[in-house]
Design goal:
Helix 1 crosses helix 2, helix 1 runs antiparallel to helix 6 and helix 2 packs across helix 3. By secondary structure, the protein is α+β, with helices and mostly antiparallel strands.
Length: 173
């Protein structure tokens, strides 16, 4: 099995207005969202920009981390993990980085958010079935520094992950 580097945590950041997506970038991203496999020429046509402008803007968006991983488009169910759940986790003081590193080593953990409030982490996991989820939740609870967990099953997705409404608003500015 290849050794993949552990993804680095992404901090929630406030982007200075000069680094924010402008209406032209938003039009380009809407075209890309509509046709993710489109060529630069097709994106230029759809967004009303020149091919060189599209290429330069995509490069700049990528350089500024405005474009996320292709992995977000893959449905875990297609990989045999149809059961999503969220595990809220309370962590002992000063052990957050250690726990996050251990969570990153569990393949079924697809995303972890640091929180304010009663829980310290919101851990998004996927499982093959209820028994597998029990195993994954046990792995999380067994991490040194994890004090308590609470697991909630996703019964159905009511609003899918989306940014198109925000892109349309940004394009209209």
């Amino acid at each position: 099995m290849p050794n993949h580097p552990t993804p680095q945590p992404r901090k929630v950041r406030t982007v200075p207005s000069s680094d924010r997506i402008d209406p032209t970038d938003a039009r380009l991203l809407l075209a890309l969202a509509a046709q993710p496999r489109a060529t630069t020429v097709a994106l230029a046509e759809a967004s009303g920009l020149s091919r060189n402008t599209v290429q330069a803007r995509l490069t700049a968006l990528d350089r500024h981390d405005a474009l996320q991983s292709f992995e977000r488009r893959i449905d875990p169910a297609a990989l045999g993990y149809p059961l999503p759940a969220f595990v809220t986790t309370q962590v002992g003081q000063r052990r957050l980085d250690e726990v996050a590193h251990a969570l990153a080593a569990i393949p079924e953990v697809v995303q972890v958010h640091g929180l304010t409030g009663d829980a310290d982490l919101l851990v998004h996991v996927v499982a093959t079935d209820a028994e597998d989820l029990y195993r994954v939740a046990g792995q999380i609870l067994g991490i040194p520094g994890v004090e308590r967990t609470s697991t909630a099953l996703v019964m159905r997705q009511l609003v899918p992950y989306r940014l198109a409404p925000l892109l349309r608003r940004a394009a209209a500015r």
